[in-house]
Amino acid sequence: MKIPKHIAIIMDGNGRWAKDRGLPRFEGHREGMERVREVIRQAQRLGVKAITLFAFSTENWDRPRSEIKFLFSSLEKFIDKYLKELQENDIKLQMIGRRDRIDKKVIKRIEEAERSTKENKSFLINVALDYGGRWDIVEGAKKLLANCRSGVISEDDIDEASFSKSLALADIPDPDLLIRTSGEQRISNFLLWNLAYAELYFPEVFWPEFNGSELKKAINAYGQRQRRFGGV
Length: 232
Ligand code: FPP
What we know:
The chain is an alpha/beta fold. Helices cover 44% and strands 15% of the residues. It has seven helices and six strands, in the order βααβαβαβααββα. The structure holds farnesyl diphosphate. Farnesyl diphosphate binds at residues 11-16, 29, 32-33, 36, 53, 55, 60, 71, 74-75, 78, 127.
């Protein structure tokens, strides 16, 4: 079976999953968190090398404060609960996105987890928090401009390769596969640059239903696709 090395996931439908069951939205996020662990384990078992999860977008600040609080405290709990497991399985955790608007206490916890897992090599989890694809591209442009102004690089050094390196995912190869659950078929300002050649997969199930066997299905579907990268 052809295995994607890097999978990007938009975990959509937690709220609708809960609503369908007459539960409050946060129950959907709670259940969604369980799937995060399950999907990571399955991905690692199948030989995937990296996963990038869209956990909180630059637009998600428009949600009720109580929901935002719940999402970030869930993330802290996730780290507390699974840091040991990440170490045992040689998994590196890192965050991509803006760090200046998230509660300092949460950032501190994330940075501790980044520091303590940074030498791990078998698998990489990128958690996108306060992340937006356009923000990422603008930040990249600013970095290149600053390097030009200070003479570190010249205008001629700006090309696709150097631009890629100035983005949040820098040296990590682009995702081969993007999964968005809940039947929605949009990229919603996720990794705009990096998804240029990704295969797109849109299962109907809500994120709290996306278990290990759903991931297998996604990978099977990926295996059937012919990737030509613009060639023939
Ligand atoms: C989308 O469902 C889900 C989110 C905005 C949050 C996803 C976050 C998690 C599952 C937790 C992340 C945790 C880690 C450790 C990465 P929605 O609320 O937009 O659902 P709806 O579209 O049905 O309302």
